[in-house]
Amino acid sequence: MSEFLSVNGIVKRFGAFTALADINLQVAQGEFLCLLGPSGCGKTTLLRIIAGLETQDLGTVLVQGRDIGRLPPARRDYGIVFQNYALFPNLDVAQNVGYGLRTGRARRRERVEELLALVGLSGSERKYPSQLSGGQQQRVALARALATGPRMLLLDEPLSALDAKVRLHLRHELKQLHQKLGITTLMVTHDQEEALSLADTVAVMDHGTLEQVGTPQQIYQQPASRFVADFVGHANWPLVNVRADGKVELAGQEIPVPGAYPAGSARLFCRPEDIRIVPHHAQNGMMALVESLEFLGPVRRATLRLERAPEILLQVDLSAKDPWVDEGDAVPLAFPADRLRLFSAEAV
Amino acid sequence: MTPRAGSGRGPILSADERLARALAYGAAALLVIFLVWPLAEILVKALQAPGGQFVGLANLRAAVTEPRLQDAAWNSFALAAAATALVVPAALAFAFALTQSTMPGKPLFKLIALSPLLTPSLMPAISLVYLFGHQGPLNGWLHGLPIYGPLGILLGETFYTFPYAILVLLTALAVADARLYEAAEVLGASRFRRFLTVTVPNIRYGLVSACLIVFTLVITDFGVPIVVGGHCNVLALEAYKQVLGQQNFAKGAAIGLLLLVPAVVSFGVERWLARGRAGAMSGSSKAYAAKPNALRDAALWIWCAAVCVFLLGLIGTAVAASFMKLWPYNLHLTLAHYDFANMDGGGWLAFRNSLELGALTAALGCAMVFAGAYLVEKTPAPRPVKAVIQSLALMPMAVPGLVLGLGYVFCFDRPGNPLHRLYGTMAILVVSTVVHFYTTAHMAVMTSLRQIDGEVESVARSLRRPWWTTCVRVTVPMTLPVLLDVARFFFVSAATTVSCVIFLYTPDTVLASVAVLNMDDAGDTAPAAAMATLIVVSCLAVTLLLSGAGWWLNRRAQAWRRSPA
Fold first, then answer.
1. Looking at this predicted complex, what is its ipTM?
2. Taking every pair of C-alpha atoms in chain B, what is the biggest distance, in angstroms?
3. What is the distance in angstroms between the Cα of B477 and the nearest Cα belonging to chain A?
4. Chain A interface, mutation test: which of B1, B9, B14, B464, most A Cβ atoms within 10 Å?
5. pLDDT digit string (tens) for B182-231?
6. A70 to chain B nearest CA, in Å?
7. A2 at the B interface (CB within 8 A)?
8. Local structure of residue B158 (DSSP, 8 states)
9. pTM of the shown model
10. Within 10 Å of residue A218's Cβ, how many Cβ atoms?
11. Residues A136-157: tens digit of each pLDDT
């Protein structure tokens, strides 16, 4: 895949507040990239700078090698969709979708029809935005953004204003649409589930910096920083000890953590679904007491107390395929070597 | 190493962005020329002797130490305080009845309460003289107390300021959150306790704001005192006499500065109170719906009816007297008083001029206000220019019309001024009136523009459409109802105002409201009443016309204004 968009050294300050501190990001042709982060992390500011709706203090934005960083929005060739749809309230659906089309009347009608079919809203031409549901309005906004055939699609929290069910449905359609059109897409979201399911690449941001850029799997399984590990998904953070010989001990028992770490105390990162309850007690295995169980639908989340270190609590997700346990049971645990990572012991 | 754009290189602007920037600079420049400059001239004039030499604060010192002016200042203050103490509680009860009772006839009561807005402030004064003057049929009610003087001023100002207080208090009461009342009721609070603990805290900002508005309006008005003031001198009247009567501009400027003080203070307090009040009604609030209560509703109905009789009496008497041969002795109907041919004051020319002023002010005012607000709110014009427009747009609120008018005299009546040619034309009357009433209109348009999602403009720009396309196709249609309302406001204000234009008219551009003043001054009370009646009728006609247009627009736009099912 060839490089399409390149963001180089973008800095943006609002007074004393640094919204973006030296952001460098590459997006390949046809890639779906999600900017993921908590509110106020600068992700929307970055999108608006790429769109030309905000001016960076430093840095360039290149599209296929051409500097577009100082061009007005109209000359940057992208379509944009906002969280609150931003449809023209007094124009009907056809006028909204055709707003950017400067072709003849007949050609425009044809194109509007084509686009409405693409987003599954054929026949709604004469309706006004206020007569549509939130999901339908967002489809109109999407059709309008795609109307002029832009080379890049920018999505600013496009699903956040929708009901849970509609959001899931539209997420699926967005993914299909992207696969069908192959348009380079940048989406801003604070919803990690959305980012992981939609994106080819996820860029996690915090406090105006990029924490990690990687595939959803990398982000989830190999978080590069404590922040990413904490922000994406759910994790246990028990305190462990790294011995002088490099071996890692949890509650005095050795666990298999790959990689070399400096001696001292550290935090172990392990996700609830990665810790296993094994049927048989192995020699020198870790034992824990089932403190409580929480039913979450597909899984049961067990809170376990380590027998050797009762101050340590671990959460473990149990699926129907795991051995059945009840509160008060003593169970043997196993830690998968490839899923464990250590981070510094500073307070979360 | 990739090249980096230095902070010195700004973004490249498209043609439409460059136009927006140029227009924004133009709008800011207009506000500076027609608002800041005249006011600066007052400051300068106040520091000069009549001959033009610089005397520092001597004029001001002389003004505050002169016994005659001290008397006037004290009268102004006492009358403004008394009027505030009278109007605000009266208006509060009235507004309370309109929002929180189930009494019948609320729409009619509201209409009558706002009707003084359609009249020049001299009209109630003329009616007061007709009713309570030496020959007035109700003269006996006063037990020998003269209507000319503090009593007349107080009653006239009450009439004049009542609708302003009503408007503020209605808004404050309208944001009452029903959930708080329900909670208080569930907790067993009595009616009176609910009023004290829920209603009053809710509207305390509105109350303060109503007090400030009434106080400032009274202290800067000279329409009422000039007719029924008698020997009771007030500051506003004094400024008028110094400039127009004695041509003492320095002293006029000094008094103008004094009049600026209460207005600026109340404006400051108002702004300070407005901070962080945006969320007065949260999304989950429930509008309050009153429950029937026969005793409360009856008492409030009687109160409202009494206030309406007072208001209608002060409009109706002048109207009725204008059609009668010689009030109160000969009540035969006649149109003789409408024959202004042999009358000083300007006659029908004045009325035609007023209509012209109203129409031009409405047109130019709407265009200017919309352009200013649109450039600030919706275009990528540079931030500093936007800030200048925004802050200057709020300034006229703090400047009494009298002071603005004085500033225009000092500024544009100076032969050296390149804009001197404007002086004495209809154009300067239009411009000064637009500036005088700019703030209210600006805030109304701004509020309505802010209700349109800002991202709409962003999307339009990404779709390669210049802002003027979006402005014409989306923004203007969406703000049209508000623009009609602003046009109505400008017309009515232009037709009824005296304070600013009194210094700027010439025999050719004499206005109806000024004619009322001059004819009354000359003792021709009945023709003055007739002219005032013409003003009221034309204001009413324009109001009905524009409301009708608004109603029709709303019906047409129903398809897209309808909220989702």
1. 0.82
2. 98
3. 8
4. B464
5. 788 888 888 788 878 887 777 888 888 899 989 989 998 888 999 888 88
6. 4
7. no
8. H
9. 0.86
10. 15
11. 999 999 999 999 999 999 999 9
